Please model this.
Amino acid sequence: MKLFTKYAIVLMICISSVAMAQMPHDAIYMPKKAFCFALSANQSEWTEYWENKLKRENLNIGKLTTQSAMVMVAAGITDNLNLIVGLPYVKTKTSAGNLMGQKGIQDLSGWLKYKMLDKSGLTIHGVLGASVPLGNYVPDFLPMSIGLQAKTVSGRVIGNYHHKSGVYLQAHASYIYRSTITIDKDSYLSNNKVYNTNVVAIPNATDTRAAVGYYKKGVQFEVFAESFTCVGGDNIRRNDMPFPTNAMNSKMIGAYAKYQPKNWGLNAKIGNCYEGQNVGNSTIYSVGILYQIKSKNQVFK
Amino acid sequence: MKNLKIVKALTILFVGIVGLLIVSCEKDLNEPVPVAYIPANLDLNAGTWKTYILGTSTEVPVSEPKATNSVEYAAEIVKLKTVLANLTPEQKKTAAFWGAGAVYRWNELAREMAARYNQPPASNLEGKYPVPDAANPLADPRFPFANPPYVARALAYLSVAQYDALVSTWAYKNKYNRQGPSKVDASITTLLPVTALPTYPSEDAVVAAASYAVLIAMFPGEIPFLDSKLAEAKNARYYAGMNVESDIIAGDALGKAVAAKVMARAKTDGMAAANNQTLTAGFIEAAKARGIKDVWVSQETPIRPPMLPNYGAVATWNFDKATMGQIRPAIPYIVGSTEWQKDFDELSKINGKQTREQARIANYWADGPGTYTPPGHWHRTAANAALEAKFSEVRMARTMALLGTAEMDAGIACWETKFYYYTPRPQQFGLKTSIGLPNFPSYTSGHSTFSAAAATVLGYIFPEKASIFNEQATESSNSRVYGLIHYRVDCSMGLVHGKKIGEYAIERGKSDGSNLQ
Model:
């Protein structure tokens, strides 16, 4: 989930993942023929942002708040292969100035997560992801836009060590290909050059994450650090607004907790973007409810 | 084990897909590539066309060139052949790039400069907005803040300098009638189409030198970049096999000398006082005396002084100041009146339910910070129309000068109107915007004035496209209502005003001796 929101939800925000039972970035699987439904509410807010590398406020924005509601479904195709699909509705607003808030359905994302190795508590996973915008939102009215309109394809490798005590260590790395987008204007400035076209190249990105946590008997807690870095891209010019070509880089730390003793569960997440470039110095919160339909004979791991 | 095979296959597939993602990095932007063409008409009589600044087309002397059968010319041919014998792929690309047309490329370059510098200054720690300093153009804030009035003026001087210099060039081409190297020496192969137009002095060098002189004055922080472009534009003519060195040297000197005369007007046109903020209190008093009850107030925090409040006093091109007063739009609807309320209600409705199509139109025409502004937008439209019509360099320059002067006149007359009435923006009554709010009074709409003036001029030059240009002007005007930053009356009156302004440029066009549309 983190991957999805990272590129997609309003770019001035280091928004992170929406909490979920089994996510594109964890080592947890739905058993075969089992489903998990999740509904989450997410909020991200910032009053300062990095204009290129300059940390500043903007009195004509005040606090920018991005709220989203997300539905997700995870399905166990086999015990070692899961399909995860998510779709958010996103809304932005400012506390000052006169920029019009934006809202709408954003991008549909899907991931296939596959366990490639499982040995003595050590597991290696591969995740293939893709997303496609569903809403016809404006992508370059930043920081108000709810997304970038890029189609994406991503690949990720996750390494996880789960000790029988419940303690686990986890790390992943991803590469995200992002398509060109079409904007309403037929000319724009990027990297000091005027492009006489409405087609805009969105930089590709990499994404890394490390987490340490505890997971046993339906109780999970973890702390994490993650980094999202564009491959190429330009910077917000002095006193300008952001543009989709910007290298929106962020580093975030946060904590995640889940309690799902049986079918029903709850999760929550908090995070802070402590370092960035061309993004907001944001704090994120999210809470979710989970409901799992188990197949016969399956128990929670 | 069956599972192991599947694992292996899926792992290989996974690694393959990720690998593909990483290598497939080229993204096609689908940018148009203009190419060289043979002009539909060489306009060989253009040396007699009426100039803007030059008294006569031969006011700047250009000495007689060496004959093509002279020893000196032969030596130039040898030198050119050496260049042509060692062309790199990069040099061929340069030749093709500039071959699309000197006026076309330098106008494009000027628009790029405009976009680079179109950024309002940030406020400092004291809550003030430092004024950009021409003597220190790369400090923060950079000079200039290339806002619409600034860009309208920069492009007007650019086009006038190009036009006057090219009229002069055509006069000398006719007078000396020296043909190009490939006509003198059949073994020279050119990379661009060759016509019967004499090549001394080089029109490309003339345009390059004239444009360079205007642009370094308008964008002094870009001198190193413009130096490289000037050299590139001139060298491109050797790479293409189109000119010998004396063509280029004579053209360079002529372009430079004409531009100096054009820039002498720029130095005294009143722009230096355009940002005189001490006048605004008087403007507000005068507007109130005219019956305006609520006046414009900056909606930015901290409060930003209005953009170039005295730009209305800058010298116009195609009409005098008395005329400007006569064609000034009438007083707009007063806040609270029934008519004002009707306009406000239209905006309120959009504020709650802006359609995606309204947003698209507002965005397409926004031409806000980081763009070449509305005058730049119309220059691009004009340049592309002239390219499509296969205009000669001099006819393209005439097109751009008629448009450029009309756009600057539109800016001046519109700004004068804005500060004459000093009316409030819709945001002063609680509306939001989807495109950003310009920091100056509302009535009349600059977009509407610029666009109607441009469409009127371009409709005269390209009558077959007049209806398209008029539709575009109307859409541009509407875009400001859809973006919620102008009342309907700002736009409708701006369109009427702009059309009148454009007609003065047409009047000039009709009497410039070209016998063209």
Chain B has 18 helices and no strands. Chain B has a mean pLDDT of 96.
